[in-house]
Write a structure and sequence with these properties.
Pfam family, one: FAD_binding_4
CATH architecture of the largest domain: 2-Layer Sandwich
Keywords: Oxidoreductase
Strand order of the largest sheet: 4-5-9-7-8
Number of helices: 11
Structural class: alpha+beta
Protein name: FAD-binding protein
Oligomer: single chain
């Protein structure tokens, strides 16, 4: 590394929740693409770091971590093409706010608007909704600095390997910018059901997760009768006033004028059926507030929607083993896509999310219990969260895994962007 770059190194720190501490030699924060190019070309090992919202070692390296947060901001709206190109370190909240007065919108958002666009797309972050694919599918072009320091732009229509370029776990280089497809802006209302029973959920799973544009079921694994509550985010132009939770044995959350809706945290986006812009309702948390709990560990597995009810029954059968460690759980539907490493590749999916107490040893004891229960349903773990499935099991559920490995060897023959995670999970050797 050149003398011009070395002073920029600092301690790499830890992930957002503190459950994983990076082992890299240091952290660099280049302030220009040219500086980033020089750094990457000179370093034998490099990995990009986003908003640190992963919970495992997916972003780590034995070399240098590079934050793209300080690269010059970009917000290039192309109204004719219906796209916007943004800098990789931009958060979804920042992009959404930039679109607020343009009449355009992102097709969906994740639960947190605080996460970086490039990091979220690289790991397969998603929102919810039967008709909504994960966030990576909105990327129509990606700009990446390769191991040779060259900046390259890959576009969906021109690159036959594009399906392996975006959701790529950092294997091809350091992303500097992405181009996102846009849709016409829309308004959303957010309502909550309480007291949904387990029998009603399991017997009507498809109807419940399809009851709004975006639906999140918050199951209570330790309760043998009551499954919990349901968050429904409905486009106001498709709101069905006849929708009645009583048909599923549930009830509307109580809402009192001037008060938060029943059960609502002040940091969460507005509930109680109050219409608002898409970007102020689709995330669970406000961009100006602290997201979630923080002191936690997260896990998520994706199963085929055709198997979803049976998978939930299998988890209920062993719930007494893991429920005491669960802080919150969430079930979300995700539409199928064709990205090579997407957890929803080729199948309509249900994401089964578990937020654990930050007790690493205990969580590591129960993860095999959860995974054994889900094994008959070919679970695909979220790339950025905790799991103990071995690499062979993970790779066997991805039909394009071998294609991705070949693309990674082609794009990074010197293996500059490899790390222990890619070797362990995807079989991409470091040496």
């Amino acid at each position: 590394m050149s003398a011009a770059v070395a002073p920029a190194l600092s301690g790499p720190g830890a992930t957002w929740s503190g459950c994983y501490r990076f082992g890299a030699q240091g952290l660099a924060a280049p302030r220009s693409v040219a500086e980033l190019q020089e750094l990457v070309a000179a370093a034998p090992r490099v990995r990009a770091l986003g908003s640190r919202h992963s919970f495992n070692d997916v972003a780590d390296t034995e070399g240098v971590l590079v934050s793209v947060r300080d690269l010059p901001p970009r917000f290039d709206l192309d109204a004719a093409a219906g796209t916007v190109t943004v800098s990789a370190g931009s958060t979804y909240g920042e992009v959404a706010a930039g679109l607020a007065d343009t009449g355009r919108a992102l097709h969906n958002m994740g639960s947190l608007p605080h996460i970086s666009v490039a990091g979220a797309c690289a790991t397969g972050t998603h929102g919810s909704g039967d008709g909504n694919r994960n966030l990576s599918t909105a990327v129509s072009a990606v700009e990446t600095v390769g191991a040779d320091g060259e900046l390259r732009r890959h576009t969906r229509g021109d690159d036959p390997g594009f399906g392996g370029r975006v959701l790529a776990l950092g294997a091809h280089g350091v992303v500097t910018a992405v181009t996102l497809d846009l849709v016409p802006a829309f308004d959303v209302r957010q309502d909550v059901w309480f007291d949904l029973s387990w029998p009603a959920l399991l017997e009507n799973l498809d109807a419940i997760v399809g009851a709004a544009f975006s639906v999140s079921v918050m199951p209570r694994w330790g309760d043998p009768q009551v499954a919990g509550k349901v968050w429904l985010k409905s486009r106001t132009d498709a709101w069905d006033p006849a929708l009645d939770p009583a048909a599923f044995g549930a009830r509307w959350a109580r809402t009192d004028a001037g008060e938060l809706a029943e059960g609502q945290n002040p940091n969460q986006t507005v509930q109680g059926g109050v219409p608002g812009p898409w970007w102020q309702r689709l995330p669970h948390f406000r961009p100006d507030a602290s997201p979630s709990r923080g002191d936690e560990i997260q896990t998520e597995y994706f199963v085929d929607r055709a198997d979803a009810a049976d998978a939930l029954r299998a988890l209920r059968a062993v719930a007494e083993r893991f429920a005491p460690l669960v802080l919150v759980s969430e079930l979300r539907s995700v539409a199928a896509d064709t990205l090579w490493l997407s957890p929803s590749h080729g199948r309509e999916s249900l994401g089964i999310h578990l937020t654990w107490r930050n007790s690493p040893a205990e969580v590591l004891e129960v993860l095999p219990v959860v995974e054994a229960a889900l094994e008959p349903f070919a679970p695909r773990p979220h790339w950025g969260k905790w799991f103990t499935l071995d690499g062979d099991a993970v790779r066997s559920s991805y039909p394009r895994a071998a294609d991705f490995r070949a693309l990674a060897e082609e794009s990074d023959p010197g293996r500059t962007f490899r790390n222990r995670y890619l070797e362990r999970v995807l079989g991409l050797p470091q040496a």
